[in-house]
Specification:
With 243 residues, the chain is an all-alpha fold. It folds into 3 domains: 92 residues; 61 residues; 40 residues. The chain has 8 helices and no strands. Helix 2 packs parallel to helix 5, helix 5 runs antiparallel to helix 6 and helix 7 packs across helix 8. It is elongated and about 100 Å long. The termini are far apart.
Length: 243
């Protein structure tokens, strides 16, 4: 009796497996083909993007444009431009360069592979994952642009910090550094607000609350600083503006 019971269970398992293989087998094979094709196209996209960056010297063009912007803005406010540029070049040579070409190429290739992955999920008929992939693919372009906004906002904030620090010829260098850092923080905060508003990861009410809280904090901080211990700083700033 026990042997017959085990045999019946084994027989049902075999028939069920054959049934599902017969039903899902073509879909699984089609999904594997789609994923393989997506991997090949994604890899080709990565190579083509890297080749475009290399042949058209896009990275060199971006570096020259940004270096030219920083050099022009520095020439306006710095009297010792040659020494500062030499120091800046030495610092930049020691820093490890970020390969924006690889980041861009990998982003394109991953996005294309996700498109084929969603296609494979549609073939298999898994509706929950299909809906998730659809929402993810619709959200990724906004996320990518938001990251670009943050990148350029941070670079611009650093440039503004250097300009203000060099332009304000105060008697105390620490005062210029504090003011320049304040301007940098403000620009980075507004960049963050733009990013959050664009990629839509938080509610608009939260963004407005953060903005009002930041403005209130700055107002109170400046009021306390100038009212309690910032008379000398205020005098230096006004004297600098007068000159």
């Amino acid at each position: 009796m026990s042997i017959e019971f085990i045999y019946n269970i084994f027989e049902r398992f075999i028939f069920s497996t054959m049934y599902y293989l017969d039903k899902l087998g073509p879909k699984i094979i089609a999904a594997i083909i789609v994923l393989t094709l997506g991997g090949v196209i994604a890899y080709a996209t990565y190579k083509i993007t890297m080749l475009i960056f290399k042949n058209f010297h896009i990275m060199d063009l971006i570096d020259r444009m940004w270096a030219g912007f920083e050099e022009q803005t520095t020439q306006i406010v710095d009297k010792n431009i040659d020494d500062n540029i030499e120091k800046l070049n030495k610092i930049n040579q020691n820093k490890q360069k970020i390969r924006y070409d690889k980041i861009t190429a990998k982003s394109f290739s991953y996005y294309i592979f996700l498109l084929f992955f969603r296609w494979a999920v549609v073939i298999l008929g898994i509706t929950e994952i299909e809906q998730f992939m659809q929402d993810l693919l619709a959200y990724l372009p906004s996320l990518f642009i938001g990251i670009l906004i943050g990148f350029f906002g941070i670079r611009f904030a650093n440039s503004v910090h250097d300009i203000i620090f060099q332009a304000m010829e105060l008697t105390k260098q620490k005062t210029s550094s504090i003011i320049a850092m304040g301007a940098k923080i403000i620009i980075m905060f507004f960049t963050l607000m733009i990013m959050l508003n664009y990629i839509q990861i938080v509610d608009q009410f939260i963004i407005n609350s953060l903005f009002l809280g930041f403005i209130t904090t700055i107002t109170i901080a400046f009021g306390l600083a100038f009212g309690i211990g910032g008379k000398e700083v205020a005098r230096e700033i006004l004297e600098s503006f007068r000159k």
